[in-house]
């Protein structure tokens, strides 16, 4: 509790410091925006989402089309479980920069979290199109497909995940659950066995 309070006080101090820095050194808007970005990232890493939101809002006042500002704002909203606000921020990012892979992935997570499975699947597929060798993208796609009842597609996506990252135990475990749910018990047992082997290999 004391540590969180200390971080909060530190965040308030840094915000005031940045305001003074702007006035004292007459930083141009681009330089100041970069400072806001750096401080927002630092705040997010330590869980200071409110401070990060404030910093991002300041950067966006200087530049309404600040892609990184909208992105960091979305991440901060996401950390506070403000899902609709986060979705809105990430959608703005993609309007300004449609090739930003991580934004599609985060949107997928948010859509999944809010039960919008079709939108989550669409977002994950767009992320995969941009970075097809990301095992975690295939895994999260498979999880949502399973939730939606698209079990065959889920098995296909999860198999791609384990091929790309054969050392990740949770990918095999999830694959085993889907196989088991579909009555493919032999394949389920094999997947669970591989999950245990992968877990033991990391110990």
Mean of the pLDDT scores? Answer: 90
Number of strands: 0
SSE string: HHHHHHHHHHH
Which architecture of the domain at 1-98 per CATH?
Alpha Horseshoe
CATH homologous superfamily name of the domain at 1-98? Tetratricopeptide repeat domain
Assign the CATH topology of the domain at 1-98: Serine Threonine Protein Phosphatase 5, Tetratricopeptide repeat
Return Rg in Å. 21 Å
> What share of the residues lie within helices?
over 70%
Q: So what's the overall shape?
A: elongated
Q: How would you characterize this protein structure?
A:
By secondary structure, the protein is mainly alpha-helical. It has a domain of 98 residues: Serine Threonine Protein Phosphatase 5, Tetratricopeptide repeat (Alpha Horseshoe). Helix content is 83%, strand content 0%. It is elongated, with a radius of gyration of 21 Å. The two termini are 33 Å apart.
Walk me through the topology.
Layout: H1 2-25, H2 29-45, H3 49-62, H4 67-79, H5 83-96, H6 101-113, H7 117-130, H8 135-148, H9 151-164, H10 169-181, H11 185-202
Task: Give the tags.
Serine Threonine Protein Phosphatase 5, Tetratricopeptide repeat; elongated; mainly alpha; 203 residues; single chain
Summarize the structure.
By secondary structure, the protein is mainly α. The protein contains 11 helices and no strands.
């Amino acid at each position: 509790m004391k540590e969180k309070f200390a971080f909060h006080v530190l965040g308030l101090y840094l915000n005031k410091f940045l305001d003074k820095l702007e006035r004292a050194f007459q930083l141009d808007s681009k330089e100041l925006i970069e400072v806001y970005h750096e401080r927002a990232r630092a705040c997010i890493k330590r869980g200071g989402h409110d401070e990060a939101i404030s910093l991002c809002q300041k950067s966006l006042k200087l530049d309404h089309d600040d892609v990184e500002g909208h992105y960091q704002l979305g991440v901060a909203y996401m950390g506070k479980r403000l899902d609709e606000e986060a979705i809105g921020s990430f959608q703005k990012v993609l309007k300004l920069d449609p090739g930003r892979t991580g934004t599609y992935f985060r949107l997928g997570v948010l859509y999944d979290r809010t039960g919008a499975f079709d939108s989550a699947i669409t977002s994950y597929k767009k992320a995969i199109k941009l970075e097809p060798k990301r095992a975690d993208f295939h895994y999260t796609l498979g999880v949502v497909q399973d939730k939606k009842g698209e079990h065959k597609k889920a098995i296909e996506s999860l198999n791609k995940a384990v091929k790309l990252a054969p050392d990740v135990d949770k990918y095999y475990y999830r694959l085993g659950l889907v196989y088991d749910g579909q009555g493919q018990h032999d394949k389920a047992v094999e997947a669970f066995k591989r999950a245990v082997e992968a877990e033991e290999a990391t110990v």
